[in-house]
Amino acid sequence: MSQNVLLRAVNISKHYAGVQALRRASFDLNAGEVHALVGENGAGKSTLIKIITGAALADEGEILFNDQPIKENSPGYSKSLGIAAIYQQPALFPELTVAENLAIGRERSGPFGVVKWKERRRVAKNLLERAGARINTDAIAAELSMPQQQLVEIARALGADAKIIVFDEPTASLSEEDTQNLFHVIRELKSQGTGIIYISHRLEELSQIADRVTVLRDGQTIGTRKMADVDRDELIRLMVGRELSTIYPKRRAVLGETVFELKDFGSHSAGIRQINLAVRAGEIVGVAGLIGAGRTELAKTIFGLEPPDEGEILLRGKRIRISHPCEAVEHGIAYLPEDRRKHGVVSTCR
Fold it and tell me: Which residue of 105, 107, 186, 346 has the smallest Cβ count within 10 Å?
């Protein structure tokens, strides 16, 4: 791992309406390093990243890029330095193609504003290959899965010659296979000298990907460790400030009657059919399968996002019909979707 320090955040403090979000927090990142940033909700991780990327200004302290102080940071200026952020919710233009999204902010049109479409697609394909993505350059962004959208974001960062990439909870909605694919891409970026800031609540995955880890608590830097020198229990102790004898212990639950049941349930448009499932009171039932097996489609159909056209739903033994999310809500059924921005808010229910 190179010891060329790309970025230093030194004694950063930030107030928000009387709330001390950061208290003299410090952080540094080497070239060719994956540096994890962890802490409980409210620890100050997001505020520190906003200051690094220019979305917010620090009240005190300084940011240095290649040992040069950044005096007046802004999103545009940080981008010009080669700092890119990839958030849990990708920020693509949904109605544009992948090639068009990758061209924004990078491509300069020719005389009279003529777009060289062949060249645009060629560059987009090259960037996607570098990001490890097999995605059609003419695909509409809104039709891509969350993992595909993240890969397009990575390709966009590569197109901007990013020297530092921030990954903010990148695996929150990814399957194990997608997570491992993302880790492969991150390792490739690291081998090219890119500095990676990696934020995650999934502490068990840090040993696979991170070189160092910095812990924030109550807006302060508690410590920085080599990832090889700490384990999950030590990280938790640093994050919460005390020893925890057990984390979310498994509790014995007394199972009650069947409260929810699917009988020969399916949706032609969603590509699922003949699903039989029963859930008892106090029970957690997992639904597993490979990508494309229909897990997400089943959840969408139960919640009324896809139209069911066969079988039945029984709620406490009584047959119900759900053709719209509002009807699911009225029956006390909730849905925590993969894409929270698109499906996480039902604004038309009374």
Answer: 105
What's the CATH class of domain 5-240?
alpha beta
Question: Rounded distance, CA 326 to CA 333, Å?
Answer: 10
Which among 182, 191, 124 has a CA at the least distance from the CA of 150? 182
**Residue 254 banded pLDDT, cuts 50, 70, 90:** confident
Burial class (CB in 10 A: 0-12, 13-18, 19+), 29: buried
- 3-state secondary structure (DSSP) of residue 304: coil
Cα of 283 vs its chain's centroid, Å: 28
Is the pLDDT at 1 greater than 50? The verdict is: no
Same-fold call for 5-240 versus 258-343: yes
**Per-residue CA distances from 46 to 64, 212, 266, 316 (Å):** 18, 18, 41, 43
| Nearest CA-CA partner of 230 in 213, 244, 246 | 213
Is the CATH code 3.40.50.300 the one for domain 258-343? yes
For residue 34, the SS3 value is: strand
Classify residue 254 by burial, with Cβ atoms within 10 Å: 0-12, 13-18, 19+. exposed
| Neighbour tally for 240: CB within 10 Å | 12
195-199 vs 164-168, strand pairing mode: parallel
Yes or no: say if 310 and 287 are a contact pair by the CB < 8 Å rule: no
Give me the residue spans of the domains in the chain: 5-240, 258-343
Interior CA angle at 133 toward 165 and 35, to 5°? 25
Confidence at residue 109, expressed as pLDDT on a 0 to 100 scale: 61
